[in-house]
Write a structure and sequence with these properties.
The protein contains eleven helices and eight strands. Helix content is 34%, strand content 15%. By secondary structure, the chain is α+β, with helices and mostly antiparallel strands. It starts with 8 loop residues before the first strand and ends in a 15-residue tail after the last helix.
Length: 351
């Protein structure tokens, strides 16, 4: 007899990014009442050891939503009170068992992620929405004050120990290469765009809270014995950021890597700034997104001489000391060259 499976459902996830006071923030929700919400988000008994913290999300309803984007806009507004403008499709996430309830007979969840850049606004809605620092979820990605201590104190030694414990031969060599590429090494620099690769390696090693939670849920559903706990990896998971519902932190890692990559070839940073701004404000937003300090004079030459911005002839009115000159984005650059980004080529790691 042929095996039957529950039908797939389409979910819509929003990664909404703002930068305020030099802090890159993402919009999260904690409560939801629709069919894709976890028990914790519905306020039900803790039958699942999951996290209620999630990206704004909801199911696509073909009867009510004329397009995927309109469905996304509706869920975001309902949960956060925020009315979105332009959104960009990020990626489609459809791995089997990414929602553990699929193993208990639930539907396959295929989620379409969308990304939006906005200026931070007050929130309302039914989702207990909150702006949160995205480095709360990726503490190893913020290098503005130098190399994060957690990289050498927690991540590298535990990953090396985990790799050394794998079966030898080709498998072990592949993971050694992945470790060197993702987290840098003697011959490999730290690539700020490889956010997803770093997160996935930490997940596979059991060093992420979601990995510990998902293993427990799988064991509860299948009745199989839970994998033996590794005390050091469990301690690492406690230190490596706030867990999110389902695979939402993986979705967020994809978005962070994408936005850092786009800094090189698209002027996306200006969507996060008011119409007029100082060069310092512009640099601080780029640094917040990139997670690294930039050389001040090199950056200013890049954006001014490169024609990305132009002076307005005005100065700040509320500044202390000498008011700084105000600039605006020069839109003509979009037609003048194919890749008008600011990038991170002059990144200078402190420490």
């Amino acid at each position: 007899m042929a095996e039957t499976h529950a039908p797939a459902v389409i979910g819509l996830n929003a990664i909404i990014i703002a930068v305020t006071d030099e802090v890159p923030r993402i919009l999260t929700v904690q409560r939801a009442a629709h069919s894709l919400a976890t028990p914790a988000q519905k306020g039900e008994a803790e039958a699942w050891a999951d996290s209620p913290v999630a990206l704004p999300f909801g199911p696509f309803d073909p009867e009510q939503h004329r397009t995927l984007e309109l469905g996304l806009h509706r869920w975001v507004e309902q949960q956060t009170g925020l009315s979105l403008g332009y959104v960009e499709q990020l990626y489609t996430f459809g791995d089997r068992y990414r929602d553990p309830r699929e193993q208990a007979g639930g539907p396959r969840l295929v989620s379409v992620g969308y990304m939006a850049l906005v200026r931070q606004q007050p929130l309302s809605g039914a989702g207990e929405a909150e702006w949160r620092n995205w480095y709360e979820f990726f503490p190893w990605e913020g290098w503005r004050e130098g190399r994060p201590a957690i990289v050498d104190r927690v991540i590298r030694p535990n990953l090396r120990r985990w790799v050394d414990g794998l079966d030898g031969g080709n498998t072990q060599q592949i993971y050694k290469e992945r470790l060197s590429i993702a987290f840098g090494g003697d011959s490999s620099p730290w690539d700020f765009e490889r956010v997803l690769e770093r997160y996935e390696l930490l997940y596979e090693a059991g060093m992420i809270g979601e990995a510990v939670r998902d293993a427990q849920i799988r064991a509860a559903i299948t009745g199989a014995a839970a994998p033996p706990a590794d005390a050091e990896l469990l301690a690492a998971a406690e230190a490596l950021g706030t867990p999110m519902a389902l695979d939402n932190r993986r979705i967020l890692a994809t978005a962070l890597g994408r936005i850092r990559g786009k800094l090189k070839y698209r002027p996306v940073v200006f969507d996060l700034l008011p119409p007029t701004f100082t060069l310092l404000q512009l640099q601080q937003v780029v640094e917040a997104l990139g997670g690294v300090r930039l050389h001040k004079q090199n950056f200013r030459r890049l954006v001014v001489n490169g024609g990305l911005v132009e002076p307005t002839g005005q100065r700040e009115t509320q500044a202390r000391g000498r008011p700084a000159e105000l600039f605006r984005f020069r839109r003509e650059v979009l037609s003048e060259r194919p890749a008008p980004g600011v990038g991170l080529p002059a990144a200078r790691i402190i420490g």
